[in-house]
TrEMBL record:
Domain of life, source organism: Bacteria
InterPro entries reported in the protein's UniProt record: HD/PDEase_dom (IPR003607), HD_GYP_dom (IPR037522)
Classification via Pfam families: HD_5
Domain (HD-GYP): residue spans on this chain: 132-327
Signal sequence annotation: none
Full protein name: HD family phosphohydrolase
UniProt-listed PANTHER family: CYCLIC DI-GMP PHOSPHODIESTERASE PA4108, CYCLIC DI-GMP PHOSPHODIESTERASE PA4108-RELATED
SUPFAM superfamilies: HD-domain/PDEase-like
Length: 371
């Protein structure tokens, strides 16, 4: 039977898949709805859904009850109203911008030699990280659009936090751990507050001497947090090691991958991705697909393969059914993504309905992802 989403209750079972505006399933047939899933469906502005007769005379199962209570407990610590949350991505963006502003305020204080306030930072970043349970990869692959080049460092720190936590979550880390990964991500560049402002806001390429000084920021960041008792050793090591690379040519210590903390390996990928995808004072943003290719090609040499493969899998699932423009001007839809070569998918042309594989046509590539 058809039911308005405003009338849904935990325990109802979906009779059909719920398909979003992007033609991707939001929830699958046979799903026994929890309060969390109902809120998610409403955020996607779905008006009605088809359900089977409610289980147990409208009574939710024990599992649903537990999930509902957990969701209520999480909601109680969030300051925004349910009405705001039902705006979905608008709510997320609102919280994101607020966290960027909080981070900016703290960063300016660090420049004046004030200490890091972990409670203030936690109070801002944790509710944002918790929203990762409510959103999908669309947000992750949109973060680079939000950053202004003159405020890059603030956006980059928050975005790196989100992307790192999202990857950790997809890798199967427990909730408490991926929150810790996100906290490490937002702190990784705190030492940039001690760098020369003219250098971090410089228009154009850095000199070798300027870059040499910038490369000191992991050690500076670590020095700022190492004595804070509220941070775990994993967070502290991630801050110090996030620019180390698999071949031992990273910095500041030139460590090989086997000596680098797992949190730092995750942040290394998130940090590199967002930096390449975003316009900064000294560099234009690169094509998103080109960034993914760079990560893919560099995996063995620079990054943890498990982390990169997880990120590529996230990208592949997101890319499928996306609308794209190719370098020859053809527009089309991605109909299949080979996860071994995620940037060379099969595309269906909007003009001719022809279907062709970019793996077999090396002269073609995705120029833009438009929806």
């Amino acid at each position: 039977m058809k039911v308005k989403t405003s009338h849904l209750m935990p325990g109802y079972v979906l009779q059909k898949d719920i398909i979003g505006k992007s033609n991707r399933p939001i929830a699958l047939k046979g799903t026994e709805l929890t309060e969390h899933q109902i809120q998610m469906i409403r955020k996607f502005l779905i008006d009605t859904v088809e359900i089977d007769e409610p289980l147990s005379g409208n009574k939710p199962s024990k599992k649903v009850k537990e999930q509902t209570e957990e969701k209520k407990a999480v909601d109680n610590i969030r300051s925004a109203s349910i009405q705001d949350k039902e705006n979905g991505y608008k709510y997320f963006l609102k919280v994101y911008k607020n966290v960027v502003n909080v981070f900016k305020e703290q960063f300016l204080q660090w420049q004046q030699s004030m200490p890091i306030s972990i409670p203030d930072l936690r109070n801002a970043i944790i509710p944002l990280l918790e929203e990762l349970e409510n959103i999908d990869a669309n947000v992750i692959f949109s973060l680079h659009h939000y950053a202004r080049s003159d405020e890059y460092i603030f956006h980059h720190s928050v975005a790196t936090s989100l992307i790192s936590a999202f990857i950790a979550k997809e890798m199967g880390y427990r909730r408490g751990e991926w929150i810790q990964v996100g906290l490490a991500g937002v702190l990784c560049d705190c030492g940039m507050a001690k760098m020369d402002t003219d250098v971090i806001q410089k228009q154009g390429s850095l000199t070798s001497e300027e870059f040499k000084n910038i490369k000191k920021h992991p050690q500076t960041s670590y020095a700022m947090i190492k004595d804070l008792p509220s941070l775990t050793s994993g967070v502290q090591l991630a801050v110090l090691q996030h620019h180390e690379r698999g071949n031992g040519e990273g910095y500041p210590l030139g460590m090989t991958l086997n000596k680098v903390h797992p949190y730092a390996r995750i942040i290394a990928v998130a940090d590199s991705y967002h930096a390449m995808a975003t316009t900064t004072c000294y560099r234009k943003a690169r094509n998103l697909v080109n960034v993914i290719e760079e990560l893919h090609i560099s995996t063995i040499r620079l990054y943890d393969p498990d982390v990169v493969n997880t990120f590529l899998n996230i990208f592949s699932n997101w890319l499928e059914h996306s609308k794209v423009v190719l370098n020859n001007g053809i527009t089309g839809e991605i109909v299949f993504v080979n996860k071994q070569e995620p940037t060379r998918p099969i595309v269906k042309s909007n003009d001719s309905d022809d279907i062709f594989s970019l793996e077999q046509l090396p002269e073609l590539y995705i120029d833009k992802i438009i929806g």
